[in-house]
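Table S5 (text form). Sequence records supplied for joint modeling of the two-component complex.
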Amino acid sequence: MAVLENMAEAKDGVDQETVDAVQSLSATYKHGWETEIETDYAPKGLDENIVRLISEKNGEPEWMTEWRLEAYRRWLKMDEPEWAMVDYPAIDFQDQYYYAKPKSMAEKPKSLDEVDPKLLETYEKLGIPLKEQMVLAGVDGAGNSPYEGRKVAVDAVFDSVSVGTTFQAELEKAGVIFCSISEAVRKHPDLVRKYLGSVVPQSDNFYATLNSAVYSDGSFVYVPEGVRCPMELSTYFRINAENTGQFERTLIIADKGSYVSYLEGCTAPQRDTNQLHAAVVELVALEDAEIKYSTVQNWYPGDENGRGGIYNFVTKRADCRGARSKVMWTQVETGSAVTWKYPSCILRGAESQGEFYSIAITNNRQQADTGTKMVHLGKNTKSRIVSKGISAGRAQNTYRGLVSMHPRASGSRNYTQCDSLLIGGKCGAHTVPYIEVKNNSSRVEHEATTSKVDEDQLFYCRQRGMDEEEAVALVVNGFCKDVLQALPMEFAMEAQQLVAISLEGSVG
Amino acid sequence: MGLPARRQEDTEARVAHLVVPDGAAWATEVRKQAVSRYLAMGLPERRDEYWRFTRPDDLNAPQAPPAAVVDFKEAPAFGEVDRLKVVFRDGVFDAEASDDLSCEGLEVERLQSATAHDIHWSKDVYGVLEARGQVPVARPFAALNTAFATDGIVIRATERVSKPVNLIYLHENPDSDAILHFAIKVESGADLTVLENGPAAARFNKCMEVDVADGGAFHHVRAQGRDHERRAVTHMFARLGQESAFKSFTLTVNGVLTRNEAFIELVGDNAVSHIAGAAVGDGDFHHDDTVFVVHDAVGCESRQVFKKVLRNGAVGAFQGKILVKEGAQKTDGYQISQSLLLDEDAQFLAKPELEIYADDVACSHGSTSGAIDEDALFYLQSRGLPRPEAQDLLVLAFLAEAIEEIESEDIAEDIYGRLEGWLQRRRQ
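The corresponding structure-token record, covering 936 residues in total, follows.
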């Protein structure tokens, strides 16, 4: 706990008792346990046979296998990106399992009742009920959520496979397709073929290409024209098996005039080794459609010395194809040892809108390089970026973003605000925005600040009887308010607690 | 790590006709090291992150692209200011046209002569600050300059120097390719102002190293203007001691390609660095301000204020960075980059960056881009001002924040006057 010792030196006002109390509170990653379940692995390493094997296990048609192989061949020729402000030992891509599936899932269960109780238990423990009679009951299934009774359909992904998807029947009635992507490839090949890779092309970047080759499962959503999805959709990703990379692929299509809100959560067991997670998320919004995509990313961040944790290298992109379409990305990034993630919007349709709200918290030795790209192609398009980065311990937190106004995107508008908060003198907070304006009727505004937690605010809270830790959590929550408000209510509550937990042991 | 064959060839070809000047052993060593630095870095490419907004081709070419010699028939900049003139004609010092440079507290010497002495104060500055500024980002044209600069002067201020030193660059040969190097030392408690103006050459590579000792102050005002075909790459390297001050302002008007880089290191506590720029571009104009400010001491203040007014296909780029090193507490860093795009063809490209490793800091940056405010135009027109004049008034107001960074009122007036005149003539 070198950080705390430093803090104690740095701050005369903190007595040893407080420091001890805070120390006893750390090591608080709640989801670090492991489910003991027999797992089937594909052989370690990666070659064309593994790609074929994954495709075969998913029962995919020929075109999908070819698509994967093409991606794999391209991937071989690509270099790992090095421009991000993150530093980690080289990844041995041959020392990973690319496919892991619980043995009990050998036969895909026909309904949730047939799912291995161990798996159901796992999700229950995570607070993600897969039984349809239950509803999401706030954080940790405490059952005291004021929003009890609100339905959320869940697709649960465990290592490489989708365990089950709830409320499918009810969604079907509304015409919404919500299933695992492997199921979609089989049942709705036309839709998948039309849209898969249309937003994030096969060879978009190193990790997206890898994902195109070896993605094992993920969620698929199609909301038909004019339909307002009757409930929130959600995917819960869990990495369980050791030395296994998780490569999920999500594809959401909102047809004309439809609306969908999608939530994503992720956790992993606590281990000493690093694990790779390279996902691709593609969103397509047609005319007047709206997609709200919220993420609470809580992968295991590694211990305070930077041992273990997930490498989270994710490509997320939305294509606002239709006029007046709208996409809103909201993310709370508290986990992962290394995060490399830039949820973006291609604003193609006239008057389309993209929004990005982000909280990225890094503590101990975590590193995050995250932000967004807003590419304005259509006339009168609008985008808004609100990013809050919080860095504590010895962590490095970078906002990296692009706002690009193309010559034809006349009358467009962007507002960007990125604020960083530093807690302690050993961490770093960085801002790397790119602004490219190629027409004069568009307005672009960018603001960024970096500061420390305000002493006066802390003092005020302390004076009202809060301990230092609570005071910091409160101030930080206030700092994040703009983003927390953009989250769906269930998530907002979880996120608020996560903000406090992530900062435990970092008092400043 | 070697360069790819093609890049290495180009890098060598670029300097094939240049000769490392003779000098004392230490100077030869400095130049030799600069040559190896340059060869190791190689010429920039568009793919390089640091050159993503600016195409370096014209700067990379072994021969300078020709630039017509233009006589604008207007009073040179700083004409009204009582100053000491140092004149360079296509990159060669012209003693006759220059003033007698004896002034209290001021030592001026030609670069060739300074670097011929075995013992000389400029040893601590020449090539030293440039080399420091090569990390973390390579600046190959600066290394090239240190290695091959054929002329230049070294200036030392030992007390408050009453008159500014005005470096005047005349352009008379349409093919000239000038490389000038300046090493400046402002001693403890001294105060020096350096002014620069003139088109210089068809292609101009200038490097200025400024070492400001504890309590020293350095002021710099530059007018790069009115020479339509100029290509220029300039570097300013500064190291600031305790409680010292560094203030630099640049006015850029046209020129085909201008890349102004600055690398400022605040190494003494409570040092202050202000760097500002106003650019007005019309037509075939590419202007790039690349600024890197390093806070490596406690309680320092830095400001970057850059304003660009662009029209008719002009492109303005800004890359500004504030790096606050670990332990550089109580840093106050501010950066603003704004552009006013007067028509559909203008472009503004910006990368305002913060990299911060200390917690007790207040750093902020802002960047905006957009068209002229129609409401403000309408308001002025409703008061009887014709639209073009109203627009110029708003342009001047927009640039004012950068010009206000100039401390001397006389010099600021001169800059305002030039801008006003330029806008007025453009209207006619």
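Note: Chain A touches chain B at residues 83, 85, 407, 410, 420, 422-452, 508 (CB under 8 Å).
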